[in-house]
Specification:
Neuraminidase, about 350 residues, 5-stranded mixed beta sheet, 7-stranded antiparallel beta sheet, mainly beta
Length: about 350
């Protein structure tokens, strides 16, 4: 299990190979981390770092206990932020981010077959923030983000997938023009794309999901999965066989629901209770489900907490420095050097 977080503009890393958490390792300058792992035992970290008057998106790889040199992906004179990263078992990578260009926030991606050679460009005419990226089982990436479609309208969740030759049409996945839709999390279920996001405002907000049939080319009806307002982006993950988990923080607790191919979303489960402002929960699939989240540990201080499926209580923090937030993803169960990733987002 790998966890990366940022505090005070510095990135930190801890991992657990089964014998307990490592000591905290400093990666270097950066913030807004996001993690992915391939099937070769490599972990990839996307993050942002100031570059003069701009801010760029970088990627660095970890293997055999060492981080490689960061590579600048955005290389622009603009502010690039909110990176998301995805990897295939064969080592292909996709990084998505929001970049401020001429007064608008555009969605950009960088894709690579091997982590060495990259293709960078905008996703069609996508504009917005909080992108999320994933690959399907054919190695084709897709991106989702939140975007305001017109004056006077709240945010919508938009989705675009790679056709094999270009980015396809942008689709409105939420299609609720009178209600704000925010903070998408995208994942591939094995038979369909699945999106989770926060629908609504304040106490009336709920975590919802919808799935996209790639053959029919349509999104199904929205399913409400939480009984309470989530804080931050929900976490969504699936195993290669299709079993899934959605998790969310809701103030004093962290909750989740499992996906069963025959029964759909199962009953809610309490993952942790008695927390202070639990938020930004993330799930990662391995032999067991791994969940992390951010919660207040003292006035003005936040830590990242971890719970593995079957553990009685959460580990009080994978972090031992003040943090900015959490997120997870995982490698496929069959890899010999598995890395379950619990990256940390930002507030």
């Amino acid at each position: 299990v790998h966890v990366v977080w940022s505090a005070g503009g510095t990135l930190y890393h801890r991992w657990n190979a089964g014998a307990g958490w490592s000591s905290t390792a400093t990666i270097g300058a950066g913030s807004q981390p996001a993690l992915a792992a391939d099937g070769q035992g490599r972990v990839y970290l996307a993050f942002v770092r100031p570059t003069g008057t701009a801010q760029d998106v970088f990627i660095a790889g970890w293997q055999n206990g060492t981080w490689g040199s960061p590579q600048n992906l955005s290389e622009s004179e603009n502010i690039s932020e909110m990176p998301a990263v995805a990897a295939t078992t064969a080592g292909a990578l996709a990084v998505a981010w929001s970049e401020r260009v001429a007064g608008a926030a555009w969605i950009f991606t960088a894709t690579s077959p091997d982590g060495v050679y990259w293709t960078v460009g905008p996703v069609s005419f996508g504009q917005g923030s909080y992108p999320s990226a994933a690959f399907d089982d054919r190695g084709r990436p897709a991106v989702a983000w939140q975007e305001t479609l017109g004056d006077g309208h709240p945010e919508e969740i938009l989705f675009c997938r790679w056709t094999g030759a270009r980015w396809g049409d942008i689709l409105d996945a939420s299609a609720t023009l009178e209600v704000p839709s925010r903070r998408p999390a995208l994942a591939w279920r094995g038979d369909a794309w699945v999106l989770a996001w926060v629908e609504g405002d304040g106490d009336s907000a709920r975590a919802v999901t919808s799935s996209f049939d790639p053959t029919a080319g349509t999104w199904d009806e929205i399913s409400v999965v939480s009984d309470e307002a989530p804080l931050g982006r929900p976490g969504l993950a699936f195993r290669p066989g299709g079993a899934g988990m959605i998790v969310w923080g809701a103030g004093g607790m962290v909750r989740g629901r499992r996906w069963d191919a025959a029964a759909g979303w199962m009953a809610p489960e309490n993952i942790s209770e008695g927390m202070s402002q639990a938020r930004e929960a993330r799930a990662a699939a391995g032999d067991i489900w791994h969940v992390i989240w951010l919660a207040d540990s003292a006035p003005g201080r936040s830590d990242v907490y971890y719970a593995g499926e079957g553990t009685a209580t959460p580990t009080p923090a994978a972090t031992n420095t003040p943090t900015r937030t959490p997120t997870p993803t995982s490698t496929p169960p069959a890899t010999p050097a598995r890395a379950i990733l619990l990256p940390l987002i930002y507030r």
